[in-house]
Design the sequence.
């Protein structure tokens, strides 16, 4: 299930590059908005490098995401998709959903 560029099965994966900082009730709206920023990433990953877990993030509202080949080759489509993912992640964080997703992995 590959393509001409990549002869192996692959998927576009979105994740968090820079996690939001801790926020409390006493913080002002301005400070909350500044600390709740998320920096996402988009990557093309080989299926054999993806490890299945019991965790999943469902009902993520990403509209009109470009095709896989377009995201890899076209930088403007990639930045537009990254902006969409950023707003979706930030809305999710501000709503307080999926707290495990917005905490840094500690090994």
Sequence:
């Amino acid at each position: 299930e590959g393509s001409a560029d990549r002869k192996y099965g692959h998927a576009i994966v979105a994740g968090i590059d820079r996690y939001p900082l801790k926020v409390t009730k006493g913080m002002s709206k301005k400070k909350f908005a500044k600390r709740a920023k998320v920096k996402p990433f988009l990557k093309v990953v080989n299926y054999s490098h993806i490890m299945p877990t019991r965790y999943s993030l469902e009902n993520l509202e990403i509209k009109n995401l470009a095709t896989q080949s377009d995201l890899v080759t076209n930088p403007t489509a990639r930045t537009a998709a990254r902006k969409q993912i950023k707003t979706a992640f930030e809305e999710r964080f501000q709503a307080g959903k999926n707290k495990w997703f917005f905490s840094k992995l500690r090994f």
